[in-house]
Amino acid sequence: WVQEEAPDVLCLQETKCAVSAVPPEVRALPGLPHQFWCSAKDRPGYSGVGLLAKTEPLDVTYGIGDPEHDTDGRVLTAEFPSLFVVCAYVPNAGRGLARLEPRLRFNAAFLAFLRRLDARKPVLLCGDLNVAHAEIDLCHPRANRASPGFTPEERQGFTELLEAGFADAFRHLYPEAKGAFTFWTYLGGARARNVGWRLDYAVVSRRLLGALCDCKIRSKVEGSDHCPVTALLAV
């Protein structure tokens, strides 16, 4: 699928993989020779993100400059001539919302980080943001109002991101699209029935909207409980 899609930049989340354990078939992906990996410190099999690029970035940074969160391996940022590409795996609020408070602290620190980048050049944020922003973004909103990823606090965090000068690329282009999900639990045949959530996003600085050609949810691509999202920009 990666070869068919032929992305200029490929962002991966929840890799659960130390740099030394990246599979050789991923290392050898044609057309993506510049590879950067960020894994959780001293926590094998937890979190982790990767960013693979066709052309070498001007610079790559790891984390968001916040010691509470940067040991989890959640954010990679590559600077290119016309924009920053941020690959992010946002924390889950956890069963029983046990980790909602740390999640909200991450949201605040991450938004401050994105604002700092955006002050320098436009941003494309790609990742598993672990939130369904609106009722249209999950199959059963009424039953999930207190579920991780759909609490009022998490949804408000995404609203604040949009209010800070960013746009949800897919929803900007397809405001009324229903059943557009990127995650399905493995339980109960959820994917076959399209009982899902839209948790994965391409978010762009609003001044990039003129360059936004399309944003596609590749729901037919299997191999994970999430599916890829493709953002097409003329930059």
From TrEMBL:
MF terms in GO: DNA binding; DNA-(apurinic or apyrimidinic site) endonuclease activity; double-stranded DNA 3'-5' DNA exonuclease activity; lyase activity; metal ion binding; phosphoric diester hydrolase activity
Cofactor remark: Probably binds two magnesium or manganese ions per subunit.
Alphabetical list of NCBIfam families matching this protein: exoDNase_III, xth
Site (Important for catalytic activity): D200
Record site: Transition state stabilizer: N130
Physiological role: Initiates repair of AP sites in DNA by catalyzing hydrolytic incision of the phosphodiester backbone immediately adjacent to the damage, generating a single-strand break with 5'-deoxyribose phosphate and 3'-hydroxyl ends.
Family recorded in the similarity comment: Belongs to the DNA repair enzymes AP/ExoA family.
EC assignment: 3.1.11.2
Enzyme class: hydrolase
Record organism: Pycnonotus jocosus (Red-whiskered bulbul)
PROSITE patterns in alphabetical order: AP_NUCLEASE_F1_1, AP_NUCLEASE_F1_3, AP_NUCLEASE_F1_4
Domain (Endonuclease/exonuclease/phosphatase) ranges: 1-226
The protein, known as: exodeoxyribonuclease III
Site (Interaction with DNA substrate): H226
Co-factor(s): Mn(2+); Mg(2+)
Biological processes, Gene Ontology terms: base-excision repair
Catalytic activity of the protein: Exonucleolytic cleavage in the 3'- to 5'-direction to yield nucleoside 5'-phosphates
GO cellular component assignments: mitochondrion; nucleus
Catalytic residues (UniProt): Y89, D128, H226
